[in-house]
Structure formats: C-alpha cells, structure tokens
Amino acid sequence: MKKIVILGGGGFIGGHLGKRLKKEGHHIRICDIKKHEYFDHSEICDEFIVGDLTDPSVVKLVLEEDTDEVYQLAADMGGALYIFTGEHDADVMHNSAMINLNVARECTIKNVKKVFYSSSACMYPEHNQLDSNNPNCEESSAYPANPDSEYGWEKLFSERLYLAYNRNYKLNVRVARFHNIFGPQGTWKGGKEKSPAAMCRKVAEVNNNEEIEVWGNGMQTRSFLYIDECIEAVLRLMESDFSEPVNIGSEEMVSINELAQMAIDISNKKIKIKNLEGQEFFDKYGFKCPLGVKGRNSHNKLYYEKIGWKVSQPLRVGMEKTYQWIAEQVAISTTNSVSNVFG
Questions:
Q1: Which residue ranges does the record assign to the NAD-dependent epimerase/dehydratase domain (predicted)?
Q2: Is-contact 196 319, C-beta < 8 A?
Q3: Which residue in 319, 276, 277 sits closest to 180, CA to CA?
C-alpha cells in the first residue's frame, strides 16, 4: 500500500484519480480549496483536507515525510470563457504559480519519492496551431515558446520549475501535457466547463426543433480524451522511468461543430447548430468570442515509444457516457428549480 497525496483532488480529474487509487488499496490524502461536488469523499480518499495551496503553510501541513507519490493537479483554470477573455489572467498566473512553487519546494524538503505534474496542451506555440487540419503538438515543438494564453505560459513555467528541481535536487518528477480531458463528475455549467460538457449541456437543455449556439464558425479542431483513459495513461507514466514532458490525449481530431453534432446524435433530438461569431457575438455577450487556437490535436508517438500504451476508446463512447450523466444533472437542476418556484 502506497501513501499518496492528490493536490486538487476536489476537481474532476483528481476525483477520478482518487477513486481509482483508493480501489487499488492505497492510502489517499486529498487537499483542495473545495470539496468534491459529485463524489462522496469515502469513494475517493481516506482523508480530505480543505485548504488553499497558494499558502505554503497548508502545503507543509498536507505533505508528510517520505510520501510515496504526490499528484499535483491543483490549478486556477477553466474553459474558454474563463481562460481566453483575459479577465482572469493575473489570478490564473499568480495562483497556479504559487501552488507549484510551494509544492516543488515542499516535496523536495519532505523527500517525496515521486511527483506527477499535470501540464496542458495550452503551452504549445500558437503559431503551430493556426491550421485547423494540421496542428503540430509534438513535444519537441514546444520551443520557441509562444502559448496563446497566460494559462499556457504558466503551465510552461511550472514544467520548467519541476524539471529544474529534478536537475538540482533530484526530485523524481513526471510531467504530462493533458489534451482536453472530459467525462462525468466534472464541471458542466457556469463558464468553467470544457467543450464536451458544454455541448452535452446545451443539447440536454433544449427540446426538439430548437437550436444550440456554437461559438465561432465551429471549424476549429480539437481532440478529447475520456477520463478513464487519462487515468490509465497517468498511472502508466508514473510506473515508468521517463521524466520528460509527454502528451496524454487522443489523436481522434474533430471540429467543434462535429462535437456538437455528436452530442445531438446521441440525444436523438432534432436540433440545429447556430454558429455565433463576430459582431453578432459581441452584441449578445459584450466581449470578443473566446476561441483559442484554430487547431489542436495530441501527438502520441513519444508516449507510445517510452510507455508502450495507446489510447483505444473512440470519442463517441466517452461522449455517450458523458451526455447521459449531464442530462441527468440538467433534469435534477430543472426539477429543483421548479420545486423552488412552487415550494
């Protein structure tokens, strides 16, 4: 049995990771600024500490001497509405950087045996992602650096931070660049949700012969990885001896319009897609449409060469599971709203 700490375990990926590791019989301690919204704590950990990891005293409290593994997933982040409007840049950079500065130092002091850091595909250069049909997200393309958001710049800085601690203090690190992880028990409303959750929610909320909005022209491309395969990839990386940054994602690239249509097809509803962009978008929302790069797709050659495992599940399978869960949440939310009005 390993002694494992998950920082950010109150979030989507951290909750699923805790559930998997607890099932395997390990002792799991979680710290997050908030409790998990969808998992009971007994499912995902043995101890749950509510604390702000930007505070070094909290990190000192949470990390014990000779902890076997630390998974650093905590960050100030969200979907396009949160990351790309520019309104949260200072908080995103300050909060996430402070967390990683605290964690890297304390893990070194406490002789943590192995540390996982969750980076993001957002750290890849914008100029390599201008062609929606041929984006370049190979690990070696990271430099010269030019991320399209301050979130991406912070992720790149923190990658270098952990690798510097590896060189200077022998901190045993693993770094993964996540590409759009999705699935049930994650944020599905409020502006911080990712595209798969947003599309599932929009479809679940409308009736037949209505329409849903897709921001931009819908031709921007992405790949999306279902949470179960993400967790498997993370654990296999941790078991390996590879310590350089590596992609964790799917190579099944789709346009955002195709993603929206997939959610519609799964719902068995007759719904139209309305693309909203330019002045029409600004008139409705009051800010420029936040789109991110035109194309992004995981490049998995390095992961397969070093770890020997491939993603196998089609996007449709994960979307079916995600849509079912989000449709249930929408139904519960609607029932609660009606009860509040008439109760």
A1: 4-249
A2: yes
A3: 319
Examine residue 54 and state whether it is found in any structural domain, yes or no.
yes
262 in any annotated domain: no
> Residues 71, 124, 151, 226: which is the catalytic one?
151
Q: Is residue 306 part of a domain?
A: no
| Closest-CA residue to 264 (of 320, 325, 302) | 320
**Total-model pTM:** 0.94
Residues 262-303 have pLDDT tens digits of 999 999 999 999 999 999 998 888 888 888 899 999 999 999
What six digits make up the tokens of 54? 């930007």
| Closest alpha carbon to 101 in 154, 150, 152, 65 | 154
Bond before 144 cis per omega within 30 degrees: yes
pLDDT tens for residues 116-127?
Answer: 999 999 999 999
Residue 151 known to be catalytic: yes
Quick check: is 301 in a domain?
A: no
196 - beta bridge partners? Answer: none
233: β partners:
none
CA 69, CA 61: separation in Å to the nearest integer?
Answer: 16
Distance between first and last Cα of the chain: 49
What range does the domain containing 10 cover?
Answer: 3-181+225-248
Domain count for the chain: 1
- CATH code at position 238: 3.40.50.720
As a residue count, the chain comes to 343
Mean pLDDT of the chain: 94
